[in-house]
Amino acid sequence: MEYNAKVIEKKWQNFWEENGLYEPKPDKSLPKKYILSMFPYPSGNIHMGHVRNYCISDAIARKFRKDGFNVLHPIGWDAFGMPAENAAIKHKTHPKAWTYSNIENMKRQLYSLGFSFSKTRELATCDLIYSKWEQNLFIAMWEKGLIYRKKGFLNWCPKDQTVLANEQVIEGKCWRCDTPVVQKEMYQYYIKITDYAQELLDDLDALEGKWPNQVLTMQRNWIGKSKGLSFAFLLEKKIESSTETLESIEVFTTRPDTIFGVSFVALAPEHPLVKAVLENAQNYGISEEQKAQIVAIQNTSERERAQQEKLGIPLGISVIHPLTQVKIPLWVANFVLMSYGSGAVMSVPAHDGRDYEFAKKYNLPIIPVIAPKDSGEKAQENSCAEDFYDGGGILIHSNEYNGLDNEEAKAKIIEYFEKNQLGKAVVNFKLRDWGVSRQRYWGTPIPLIHCPKCGIVPEKNLPVALPEDVVIDGEGNPLDKHPYWKYCACPKCGANALRETDTLDTFVESSWYFLRYTTPQELREDEVFSREDEKYWMNVDEYIGGIEHAILHLLYSRFFTKVLRSLGLTDSNEPFSHLLTQGMVTKEGAKMSKSKGNVVDPEEIITQYGADTARLFILFAAPPVRELEWNDSALEGSYRFIKRLCAKVEKIQKSQSLPTIESKNLSEKERCARKKVYEALKKYQETFCHESGYAFNTLIAACMEALNALNEQDNVEIWSEGYFILLNILEPIIPHICWELSQEYFGLQNFKEIPLDEEALKEDSIVMAITINGKRRGEIKADLNTEEKQILELAKREVAKWIEGKTIIKEIVVPNKLVNFVVK
Ligand code: ANZ
Ligand code: ZN
Question: Distance, CA 154 to ligand 2 centroid (Å)?
């Protein structure tokens, strides 16, 4: 057969679509599999990362369909977000038009790869109906007290009068106009994900072995549970500010065992005490220059501060050490965050890296109080002179605690503080509440209304739609600038009120789309998701996506699912039963990217070779979790394999079922061919499971070997059987050509699971080692259970040169393993 990918691929794509073959069946008594790839952002064109993602999920989906599962394999669009607005500014298009036309193009590209998506479940998160239900959920969460409003710091460009996302801040400056960015405090909406911190942490345990370890660790670190001591340092004298009187400073430490090593107390620049001191800066000997330094730190985001060199300003005031009564100086430091613990730290340079760096820079005392267990007494005295030591050990320079193991000391010191009511044991989480408001146009409008009489009131009339006539020029918030959109009546009292002009973080949309996918189009108008469909399809059996989503997207999705459960909308708790994180696609060792100029356009590959070649290459080049290095000659190789698959067809015995083959009467080549085929089938059955990591590459290699072996023999029955099986195995990977050939030669219009013939897999011959006086001298190949007499004959012939002229004293045969001769 002449291989014409273009014609074949179009033909089968049409056939699949016309027959609705990949739509989930309504019969909910069938066993199900929900196979999900992370949905794409409609940037305009698909890239190789998308191709890889969907090649993996499509292969899995197709396999399970053949095995008789009802499969949901949906596709949709994560369609809100900044790039649409950037495009609007640059190309004077409308974000909506830009987004929907990108979706059309990418859909065309994806379908040209033959992916078996469930069309009836498609969605775009910018669809008005999606906004309606997201706003509904938002209000349900608002009413449950899970959302609140408070001031938070945002990147602000004073010139453009606009909030900037982190990626729009380039080296501290606005991406559009180069103006230095400042931190501005503005009202933001927050979702109380911290209420679920413990649950989000605990439930990771059950995902052990089902999610990559790396992802579990990243989630655990992000949630960041720390146990420690919270206590206060008294100020040497009270500080009176215009608003309050301050007497002490609360700190949080995970290392109370190092408390005798404190050499300064460091405050975040936003700490209320810093504000109070700055009101009377002169009294504390703080210069204008130092004041400016503090303001400068305040104007850098926390992210940037983390990358900066340690920076501090002494506050000209001391605190009293609660155990030694020694005076300790107060500093402002750029490494202390107001958003963690209490925004103040007891600094122990001898045992903490950041404190050490700081103390070195500002010549502050470094007092070692923990000595490594194996260090001698001398070493203990001098430890930490060269560097900090953050390991465990024995307490020194710590009064009555000297000599204690540091873990023991921790407990004892906490006990002391609690008993004397000086402080208490606390648990802190790194996890912060999720700030969800964005001052942007292309997002889901927050469905709240500010009424001068009633306060903040949820909108009754959903959806709140975005106005289409907006000016997007990078200055200010387009919704706020719109001439009348925000003016409305209060839904409660009818007074003149103002609509909220913030929109939601796009991570909100991606936190529940997988639930929405379960619900067919026709039921989507009236329900957030059909309870029955959701119940049947959830959880996602295999979720496939990039490691870049290992933290936020997965955490938010897990959180949303738990919230929706508490709202009675789902029974699901952990939405993704298994997670597969695919590796990057690279070329010349670097991730494909426009800036590096190493991008391979999937569309060009499809045009030149066809979708099946692209799919085969992608799945053959590396196992899914590993990096995939682009390789033109391997691509050619994949193309050649498909052509070879089409080549030898004159031998075919047309039949819709497998011939029965007696393995006894076969020649060695025939038996070998059959064995290779069944080995491939066995591999196929093992490959499609999470535990084996979906190693399609080894499966494909087995198929290639099998095809070669088949081509080396002339038995038509064996050829037909093998071919039949190979087409079946390869269908999830290169579906078009497999459908084509199966129809052509077997009249098949569908694929099913094929049983394994154990008989064919049996080892028919074995290798036996031959030893002489215990030394290995050769080996023979013999049929299984060959008679001893025959084996000895074969063995003697094999090692003839070693026994020539010698006398054999003893012959030992260990059946199917070994022959030993004792000679003299
Ligand atoms: C004294 C100390 C000694 C500390 C030592 C560490 C090592 P995790 O584990 O991440 O919870 N810390 C507390 N609040 C902070 C803030 N707002 N900004 C920056 N750092 C802060 O870290 C807890 C430790 O981080 C605390 O324990 C505190 O330093 C610091 F050898 O106290 B530690
Ligand atoms: Zn009102």
Answer: 29
| Spatial CA neighbour of 642 closest among 667, 670, 619 | 619
Q: What backbone torsions phi and psi does residue 531 show, to the nearest 5 degrees? A: -60, -40
- The per-type count for the chain, helices as H runs and strands as E runs, is 28, 34
pLDDT per position as a tens digit, 315-353 = 999 999 999 999 999 999 999 999 899 999 999 999 999
For ligand 1, atom 18, name the residue with the nearest CA.
Answer: 336
Which of the four CATH numbers 3.50.50.60, 3.20.20.370, 3.30.450.20, 1.10.730.10 does domain 648-761 have?
1.10.730.10
Ligand 1 atom index nearest CA of 259 = 1
In this structure, which long-range contacts are made by residues 464-470, counting pairs with CB atoms below 8 Å and at least 24 apart in sequence? Answer: 464/131, 464/135, 464/499, 465/128, 465/131, 466/96, 466/441, 466/442, 466/503, 468/94, 468/96, 470/441
CB 312 within 8 A of CB 247: no
135 Cα to the center of ligand 2, angstroms: 20
Look at ligand 1, atom 27, and give the residue with the nearest C-alpha.
253
Q: Which of 220, 308, 345 to mutate to test the pocket of ligand 1 (most atoms within 8 A of CB)?
A: 345
Sorted by sequence, the CB contacts under 8 Å of residue 135 that are 6+ apart come out as 444, 445, 446, 447, 459, 462, 463, 464
Please name the residues in contact with 88: beta carbons below 8 A apart, sequence gap of 6 or more: 94, 95, 98, 442, 472
**How many angstroms separate the CA atoms of 59 and 56, rounded?**
5
Give the pocket of ligand 1 (CB within 6 Å).
226, 252-255, 258, 335-337, 340-341, 343, 345-346, 348, 351-352, 390, 428
Task: Look up the pTM and report it.
Answer: 0.88
- Residue type present at position 659: P
- pLDDT tens, position by position, 589-634: 999 988 889 999 999 999 999 999 999 999 999 999 999 999 999 9
Q: Residue 86 and residue 563: Cα distance in Å, rounded?
A: 33
Q: At residue 478, what are phi and psi to the nearest 5 degrees?
A: -55, -35
Mutate to test the pocket of ligand 1, among 225, 297, 339, 340 (most ligand atoms within 8 A of CB): 340
CATH architecture observed for domain 765-823: Roll (3.10)
Atom of ligand 1 nearest to the CA of 252: 13
Candidate of 229, 251, 255 to mutate for ligand 1, largest count of ligand atoms within 8 Å of Cβ: 255
CB atoms within 10 A of CB 285: 11
Smallest Cα–Cα separation from 346: which of 417, 444, 275, 429? 417
Which residues are registered as beta bridge partners of 445? 503
Q: Is the pLDDT of residue 259 over 60?
A: yes
Q: In this model, does residue 660 exceed pLDDT 80?
A: no
Domain ranges of the chain: 132-205+433-506, 225-429, 648-761, 765-823
244 to each of 214, 236, 279, how far by Cα in Å?
47, 17, 12
Angle formed by the axes of helices 696-711 and 716-730, nearest 10° = 160
Confidence of residue 497 (pLDDT cuts 50, 70, 90): very high
Residue 335 CA, closest ligand 1 atom number:
19
Give the pLDDT confidence score for residue 393 in this predicted structure: 96
The mean pLDDT value for 757-776 works out to: 84
Phi-psi bin for 178: left (phi > 0), alpha (psi -120 to 50), beta? left
Compute the 3-state secondary structure of the chain and give helix, strand, coil in percent, each to the nearest 5: 40, 20, 40
Q: What's the maximum distance between 2 C-alpha atoms anywhere in the chain?
A: 117
pLDDT of 101? 97
How is domain 225-429 classified at the architecture level of CATH? Alpha-Beta Complex (3.90)
Give the ligand 1 atom nearest the CA of 351: 31
Q: Where are the alpha helices (DSSP H) in 567-631?
A: 602-609, 611-621
Once rounded to an integer, what is the mean pLDDT over residues 19-44?
Answer: 97
Neighbouring residues of 104: CB distance < 8 A, sequence distance ≥ 6? none
pLDDT of res. 627: 96
In this structure, how many other beta carbons lie within 10 angstroms of the beta carbon of residue 374?
8
